[in-house]
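Crash report, auto-generated. Payload:
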Amino acid sequence: MQLVVFALNKEEYGVDISAVNGILRAKKFTIKSIPGSSKEVDGMINLRGKINYVLNLRAKFGFEYTDRDEESKFIMLNINEGNTGWIVDEVTDIVKIDDTHFQSVPQAIYGINTNYIQGIGQIDDRVIIILNPDSMLTAEDYSVINTHEA
Amino acid sequence: MNNQHLQPARYGSIDVNNIKLTDVIDISFLQKFQDDFAKGVGLASVTVDPDGTPVTKPSSYIRFCANYTHSTDIGDKRCAESHRKGGEEAARTGKPVVYECHAGLIDFAAPIMLEGRLIGTILGGQVLTSAPEEEKYRRIAKEIGVDADEYVEASKEARILSKESIESAANVLFIVANSMSKAAYQQLKLRSVVQTLSDSAHQISATMQELAASASSVSDNQNELNNEIKNVNAVTGKIDEVMDFIKDIADETRLLGLNAAIEAARAGEAGLGFSVVAQEIRNLSSDSKQTVGKIKELTTIIKESVDKTVRMGNGTTATIEQQAAAIEQVTASIEEISSLTELLSDLATQA
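Recovered output after restart:
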């Protein structure tokens, strides 16, 4: 498995590269907020004439809110018909990880609210939390986005 | 420091260390004084320089001397020798001496001294303290080759004065001549000192003007330097702008590398080669970014250095301003001294 590794609140996270459409520099876009959306949804951007939604992973994970800075990136993903992105602090790496270094997380640990963690990757001393893009938004979030689109 | 020019060596054409009688005594005044004195007291008198050469005309010479003793070569020479001896004795003692001349008359010699140096002698006398002895004058007449009868007759014209009177007369001439020359000499010295003072004041004044000019030029230079340094700061700022631009390009390149890697991954086996290129691109951008960071560190050091230089430059400017103020004060003081010197000069010139 190949991972796009990114930094969030000084921790390393990863996402399967096959789910990634591309990476954008956050500072090049203006995010329009969506009224009534949950705090995890930062808003929408206009990418080459198409509306894309961006999720705020800091809000999602309950980290301290910080403004987007010079290095902030959007990781655009193949979910929700390919129009959703994550705001991350920085995209740091692209790595290959074999199955021996991949561990799934026991059901007891992540529970019902944390089913977006696909597993843990280990490369030497680095521990990478691998996220599952499909499980990141709740049905509620989708309903807001879809309502807005409709 | 060469302090030779501080010593009052010369005033005009007069060398105060080698002063002559004519420098300190107005000869026409001396002549009149000598004539009147001679007539009043009944003494002959003449003033000579240290070589024995007369500087005044003889006053009230009696016939005995003028017409007989000086009339032959031998007599004239004996007179000169007699005067020389009297003058020498007077110079040696620094006081008037009364003595008998070669022709048997009573003479005196009063030295005119300045700073312990003889500048002239007032000679006088041609008198007697008692009635002339005929035999003595007949003998002398024979010695110098004049008519003995006429010589004896002429000797009777010599005035008879007491030794005390002769001494007093010599003393009066001595005191007056010495006081006059001393006063004149002091005035000359004062004029010389004042001149030196005035020259020094002018020199200091000129030097101060040069100093003031150079201080102002240093100040101008410093200002130019400060401006030049500020230019360096501006250029450094522009370098930083360029660096920001390069960093942006590096960021963009890195993103390109990341996106290329993503595309390569999607292409599966076919994208393997491309993923190596994508990795290289990311490495390059990372190198560029590090280089930008290093250059920025350097420009920061330059900025700090420039700021420090500007601060030091401002310190220098402040010091120069203080110096300029000090120079102004000194110049004002010198001007005061100059005007005082002029006053002094006026005082010293008033004869």
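Post-recovery validation: Chain B has eight helices and seven strands.
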